[in-house]
Design brief:
- The longest helix is centred in the N-terminal third of the chain and has 30 residues.
- This protein has a nine-stranded mixed β-sheet.
- It starts with a helix and ends with a helix.
- Helix 7 links the parallel strand 5 and strand 6.
- With 281 residues, the protein is of the alpha/beta class.
- The chain is globular.
- It contains eleven helices and nine strands.
- Helix 4 packs parallel to helix 5.
- One magnesium ion (MG) binds next to loops.
- This is PAS domain S-box-containing protein/diguanylate cyclase (GGDEF) domain-containing protein.
- It comes from Marinobacterium stanieri.
Length: 281
């Protein structure tokens, strides 16, 4: 078929491939340097309880000064980090900054736990898990104030090493949240094996609530499963009041989304939380 289309077409595809491959390599090299120079930072997005208070928050990595001085979104550079092994130092960097934020919260007598995103591949590496436990131990932060967000791609892997990593982190006191729930390879039997504390309803099911009948049904089902398994539920991507009202009315524990709060650089988020607390006292 390529021949029929003429060589021009083939050359076009090759050029496209070449551009993509080059962009990947360029990103990988720049990311390697950014990690070495500690140039990645974290943003924090609050999660709200029914009474409107900030009950927890999610940490999101930021690369503000990428190639050509432009920011690169995690949607683009996380896959590059995963493919190149850079995901390990990247995650330790994010974890380290999160632990510092937890210490600053503790110093201000604020007990807001933080969630950090972990790629599935990390759970294959026992040495990486050692590193995580060591870092948390050194920080003297209570591991119970840290939640790890995993995704359903972890379900694809039923190997002993993955289960062992989860068991060890869980035994150490870290909690687990299942991110983007419903988009992947849901196998409800694994909900128990993963020692989960929390499910996060993916944004695509929150979209068009309460108008969309399918999404209404899916969200109600997730909330009902979670209730029976005694899991806390966070809705992601809450962008308007009608969505928030529907979710709250059906017993969703926590709401996260642009309606309530946009991810904010960690230091300014911390200042905001501390200021709010001082005003209350
Ligand atoms: P996620 O973990 O599902 O994070 C939620 C994403 O949704 C974030 O995008 C957040 O900014 C965005 N978001 C929050 N509220 C709303 C809303 O109301 N509407 C819309 N449209 N979006 C909302 P972000 O920061 O670009 O991160 C994208 C993804 O990159 C994350 O999805 C996560 O899978 C990954 N990621 C981010 N930080 C890390 C990290 O430190 N490690 C790893 N492994 N992955 C990360
Ligand atoms: Mg997440
Ligand atoms: Mg998510
Ligand atoms: Mg998501």
């Amino acid at each position: 078929r390529a021949r029929e289309a003429g060589t021009g077409q083939v050359e076009f595809y090759q050029a496209e491939l070449g551009i993509n491959a080059r962009r990947q390599l360029e990103l990988e090299e720049a990311l390697r340097h950014a990690i070495l120079r500690d140039e990645l930072s974290i943003a924090v997005q609050s999660q709200f309880c029914g009474d409107g208070t900030v009950c927890s928050a999610e940490v999101l990595v930021r690369w503000l000064n990428g190639p050509e001085g432009k920011p690169v979104s995690p949607g683009e550079f996380i896959p590059v980090a995963e493919a190149s092994g850079l995901i390990k130092p990247l995650t330790l960097l994010v974890l380290n900054q999160s632990l510092q934020a937890l210490k600053q919260l503790e110093a201000a007598n604020l007990s807001i736990p933080l969630s950090v995103n972990f790629s599935s591949a990390l759970f294959h590496d026992a040495a990486f898990v050692d590193g995580v436990i060591e870092l948390i131990g050194e920080s003297q932060v209570d591991p119970g104030r840290l939640m790890i967000e995993i995704t359903e791609s972890l379900f694809l892997d039923t190997s002993d090493e993955v289960q062992e990593s989860i068991d060890r982190l869980s035994f150490f006191g870290i909690k687990f949240s299942l991110d983007d729930f419903g988009t992947g390879y849901s196998n409800l039997a694994y909900l128990k094996k993963l020692h989960l504390s929390e499910l996060k309803i993916d944004r695509r099911f929150v979209e068009n609530l309460p108008g969309d009948e399918d999404n209404r049904t899916i969200v109600r089902s997730i909330l009902s499963i979670a209730r029976q398994l005694k899991l806390r539920v966070v809705a992601e991507g809450v962008e308007d009041v009608a969505q928030a009202d529907f979710l709250a009315a059906h017993g969703c524990d926590l709401l996260q989304g642009f309606l309530l709060h946009k991810p904010e650089p960690a230091q300014s988020w911390l200042q905001g939380q501390i200021t709010k607390k001082m005003k209350k006292v």
